[in-house]
Amino acid sequence: MQLTERQKRIAEIVKKEQPITGEKIARKLQVTRSALRGDLAVLLSGQILSARRHLGYYYVGGGEDPVQEKLASLCIRDYMSEPIVVRADSDVDSAIYRLFTEDIGTLFVGTPEDVIGVVSRKDLIKSAMGRDDLSKMPISMVMTPRTKIVYAGPEDTVLSAAEKLLHYEVDCLPIGTVHTDDGEERFSVVGRLSKTNIVKIFVALGEKRAANRKKTE
Amino acid sequence: MQLTERQKRIAEIVKKEQPITGEKIARKLQVTRSALRGDLAVLLSGQILSARRHLGYYYVGGGEDPVQEKLASLCIRDYMSEPIVVRADSDVDSAIYRLFTEDIGTLFVGTPEDVIGVVSRKDLIKSAMGRDDLSKMPISMVMTPRTKIVYAGPEDTVLSAAEKLLHYEVDCLPIGTVHTDDGEERFSVVGRLSKTNIVKIFVALGEKRAANRKKTE
């Protein structure tokens, strides 16, 4: 949203002196009250100001940036992909084969109800260095074990997952929940959210514009 | 941006009958011209309508979605990372070592002025399968050669790069330009843009809100 210089000045005034009446703002700007009507309507509709009867205008802020609001509102459940789970006794070679056939970067190890580890491309490259027979090495030897897994819940925000991907330097998070079964803590997985999912969201949000334009033209 | 019911109706009217004067809009809504002043100001500032003197109001559309506008406006030059270039006679083992020390997923091969290939984690995993001595294999045997490289220019939009990452199923694009040198076509690299860069942008745009809030509180 583009504000005029006067609208920015009004927002500044309200920010400092809230609550403030329209009459007082007009006096500060040396204009008539009615000359401000359009500017105040713009600031209210853009959720930069709010108004309360008998009190005047408040600065709401934050609402200035609809991009932040949109990105912070997305929920993982709506954007995650299917998890791919391989058995704990798979060998490294067949896990690599699976990565290529599914064209993904990260596998989960165990069962969907009981994930015991995660294997990424990084783990596989490490295991491949200086070893000669990957077909005999069990996947459990190269995976990151459950206790060290970084994960997110399906109701968390995509933004919080993106922060984890960056902070922990991983390409993909398992999406699921930790629960206790017979006194044992288990992690069950319902999805995966990778950097690729975030790029897809970026493209979907950025491209809609062109699609809408085509529709109206 | 939140529009009132009347603002939405005005936008619809202008969309159908553009260009249309303020007087005509007022007549259609059975209100006075001055009663519309605030609404029109909101629609103009939100870039939903534009106005031309003597002609009246036009529907601009698209501008309804500031998220699209923002994401589509970002330029690669402002967000790319440093390119990491290894010599063409490097062996696979040392390239893998470099990937881990730099903590990245993709290396460029050759010199910054003359990139002859790209090596990704995917390429390295493929090369590692069923081979026993990576320290003797030259990187040029596993790289994607220049003629098949997908790249972008530094002045292109991040959005177009994100589309390429998805469409060509790669994790990282070299950013640079193709030029002719002594009749030979060469690709010189000035940066790289990976899925990680896009996730960083996502987090930066989504998080600002919290940062601003802290500042004003």
Could you walk me through the main structural features you see in this protein, from its secondary elements to its overall organization?
The structure is a homodimer of 217-residue chains. Chain A has 217 residues and is of the alpha+beta class. Chain A has 8 helices and 8 strands; from the N terminus they run αααββαβαββαβαββα. The first copy, chain A, has helices at 5-17, 22-29, 37-45, 66-73, 92-102, 121-128, 158-167, 195-216; strands at 49-52, 56-59, 85-86, 106-111, 114-120, 144-145, 172-181, 184-194. Chain A has a 4-stranded mixed β-sheet. The longest helix of chain A has 22 residues, at 195-216. The radius of gyration of chain A is 26 Å and the shape is elongated. At the A-B interface, helix 3, helix 4, helix 5, helix 6 and helix 7 of A face helix 3, helix 4, helix 5, helix 6 and helix 7 of B.
